[in-house]
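User: hey, got a sec? need DUF1806 family protein folded
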Amino acid sequence: MKQINSREVQEVLEGFTGKEVFLHLETTNGAYAAQDKEKRAVGAYIRNAKITILNAMIKGNGPFRIGLKTNDGWVYAEGLTDWEVDVKDRLLIAGHDAEGKLAVALQISITPFK
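Assistant: Yep! Here you go:
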């Protein structure tokens, strides 16, 4: 993965506009947070949710945030730092914390994720 270039990511996002796609969205502060008695491990996970993207925007100066407008509402992810388009033309975006640990993942694909 490489650091986010918002112009490049915006172009890829626009390629998904008007299409039904499969969404993977995951957030976590990881099990390592549970080792600290004052912190609680938290996370959210959704995979292969079908949505139609009506509009997609990336904002910020880094870390970034992405909003996806759908027929029924919005999908939103923030804290994004890195991205790539893989060999299956899936957009893979991640946010890593200062220690390099995954904090958020947003992935978009025309075909389901395995």
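Quick note: The chain is about 10% helix and 55% strand. Let me know if you need anything else on DUF1806 family protein.
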